[in-house]
Each structure stands twice: as C-alpha cells, then as structure tokens.
Amino acid sequence: MNTIPDWALKYKTRGVYIRNVGNNYYAYRTRSKWIKEEKKTKTLPPEYLGVVTRNGIVRKDQVMGIRSDYEYGNIALLYGIAEKTILPVLKEVYPYLYERIINYVILRNIQPLPMKSIRYLYEKTYLSRMSDESMSPASISGMLSSLPEEKSISVMRKLTEKGEYVLMDSTAIFSRSENISFLELGHNSKGEHLPQINIMMLFSATRTMPTFVRILPGSIGDVTTMSETIDMAGVEKCVIVADKGFFSSDNINALKKNHLSYIIPLRRNSSLIPEPEHFMNVFLYDGKPVKYWQREDDVYIFEDPVLKSEEEKDYLIRIEENKRSKQQYDENEINFGKLYLLSDLNEEPERIYRMYKQREYVEYAFNMYKNDLEADRSYLRDDHMMFTYMFLNLLSLYLHFQILNMIDGKYSVRDILLILSRIKMYRMEKGEIMSEITKKAKDLVSDLKIDLDILRKKA
Prior knowledge:
Elements: H1 6-9, E1 16-21, E2 24-35, E3 40-53, E4 56-58, E5 68-71, H2 73-84, H3 86-93, H4 98-110, H5 118-123, H6 127-130, H7 137-146, H8 149-158, E6 165-174, E7 184-187, E8 193-204, E9 209-217, H9 223-233, E10 237-241, H10 249-257, E11 261-265, E12 281-285, E13 288-292, E14 299-303, H11 305-320, H12 326-332, E15 338-343, H13 349-357, H14 359-376, H15 383-404, H16 413-420, E16 424-427, E17 432-434, H17 439-447, H18 454-458
Parallel strand pairs: 6-10, 10-11
Antiparallel strand pairs: 1-2, 2-3, 3-4, 5-16, 6-8, 7-8, 8-9, 11-15, 12-13, 13-14, 14-15, 16-17
C-alpha cells in the first residue's frame, strides 16, 4: 500500500480524508445525516472534493489549462497484459513496426471500428500520448501490406506453449469482396451460393487461448490441410474438435492415416454407441453435475441431468400437443441429456468433456472474426492483406481471452473495458492529472491488478 506523502497529508483536515491511486491523490469529505424518525445518524457516500496537488485541492471543473483528456484505464489494462504476453514477441520479430501493431491490436479490443475510423479512436486514448503513430487508413493499410507472412507465422508459433493440448476447428466466412483470390463459391446455412474462405484456428485447451490462424481457399478444408496446418504451427499435441456433420468413416480413416487425434460428437442414433450400464462417477462442470460412463470402443458417454430433465419436459409437452407419440418417447428416453463423443484419446472422461466444451470458445472467437471482417472487407485488396488482417485480429483475440480468463462472469470483457474507459487522464499546461475513479472501476483495478502508472512511464 502506497504511503501518502506529507505535502498531501497537510490537506487532511476534520472530516476530510485523502485516498491515493497510483501516483495520484484525491480528497473526499465524509458525510452523514440525522434521521429524525429513526433517531440515529446515517452515513452517506463521501463527497468528492478533487485532486490533491502541491498547490491545493482542485476539482476538474476548477482546473485551468486543461488541454485534452484521454481514455486511460482501459488502455492500462490491455497494455499491461500485452507487455507480459505478445509485446516482447512483437518487439523481437518486428522491431520497427511493433508500436503500430500493438496500437492496432489494443484499439480493436476497445472498439472494432473500420480502418477509416481507427485514428479518431486512437486520438482519444492515451496510446496517442505514448507514440507518434498516425494510425491513419493509409498507415494501417501499409502495415497490412508490409508484414511478411513468415514472420507473422513465427509470432503465432511463439504463442503456443510446448507440450500443451491444442484444439483445431475451422469455419467458412462469406464475403463479396472482388479482390481476394482465396474466395471461392460455397454454400451458406440457407443454401445460397456465396464466395467464401476457410479459416482454421488452433486454440490452447490448457490456457483457453487462440494461438494460430490460417486462411485457405473456400474449396479446401480436408484432413490433409489440417495436418499441414499443425506442422506449420509447430504443434506437438493437437486434437481435431469437430461437429456432428464431420463424422464419416472416410474422415475418421483420413484422421488416423494422418496421425491426427480427434473428438467428434456422434448422432444419438449412431450404431457406434454402446449400450451403457451403470455410470462410473460424476464431476462438476460450470456448477452442474455431469455423469459419465467407462469408455468403450472409443466412445465416451456423458449425461447432463439438468438437460435430461429439460428434454424430457419438452418431449412430454409435445406428446400432449399430439406432436410426438408415447412410443417415440419410449424409444428416445435413453438419450435424454446424453452426449456421445468419439475419440482416439485415452484420457480421463472429464478431460475429454472439457476439451470438447472448449469448442464453444472457438466458436465465440470465430463469431468475433466474422463481425469484424464485415466492416473492413473493402480495405483488403489482396490475399496477403487478408492473411495479415486475420493475424492481427488473432492477436486482438489473444488479449480479449486473457481478460476473459481473469473474470468471473459478473461483467463481459466489453463491460470491463467500458467501465475502465471512464478513468481518464487530463493533460494540463503543466503535467497531467488522473480523473476521479468510480467504485466499480476501483474494484476492477484491484481485482484485475491493473498498474495505473504503467502508461505514464511509457509516455
């Protein structure tokens, strides 16, 4: 805990106390009110008096010479995380461009704006006090064109830790851009023919973190390509986590031929599912019990009792509405709440279940990719720019998931960054003053261990 210096303590008078945050000091007056009906004194929230300076206590609206203000708290969080994770790698691989890269990556987390608008966001954050990058559309476009693909791959390889399990999944992104040769006709969920590219992503199952991305022509997405991507990423232990539509004898044989491990859900009417007897045990997942059975013929069986109850209730309602029959109920009852996973991995069932469930995080990352790409597609003039764009957005996702792994679900990542954006830095004619910090923001600074002095040391 920081000690309040003597020059600030002299403003601590009767009913006034001083609070320090980082290198700043703030004055508050305690307040109370006599409640006549209850015959007692009620403590009220303290009154904020202002920033304690060597020349006295000054409120924001009394300070003369404020030139500008900058979003500070959200940048402090993201930059502090980057400094411990991706920034050292970027400095090593891109010694002349790392500042522009990290600015772009951080700003994408603050607000995923189109390239034409990024410089306006940049100018209102403290990042613009730390570097002289213009962050104009031309400078960002130049960055996308100039980053060598092999160096970007090198950065992503360094984000994967040795020996950890890495999940792989892929998705198609549809676009009408006329500049990308990777775009080839494919089908969307409505059966429409649209140009698409395939994105393969590697995701650390150990750290819940995206680590590698590769883009491919829309017509390519076979098992051989998966194997090539794993080799490119330098991954030691990779698991293909697919959806039910991926399962086929040909695909399973191809995975085995390429020595690729897999976790694939089976349809509930699959002939591969053994008849379960007594379940082995139970584990908790997200606070809910999950029953599991002994692995048999490479099939893991799980049952979620909560889901089972919901499915049974839904089925009974459909019987009452004459949309299902009692015979159908008898035939399907055994599958209520069940999940059947086919895997060549000989692991504890709980670990298999958790790895499969992490596919939800991969889908979450893919959704963010798709939404961001839509805004910027007109700026991506060729295949190389498309790859670099995907690479930089992977770094942005990397920081996003770092925060996601630090929180307990009370707030979303976007909520946290918005709350922290209210911690501002006021630039004056002489020096800088940090704004008052709300209780919510103060709690987040404490919970996330944010160093609010980190940016001013860099400016």
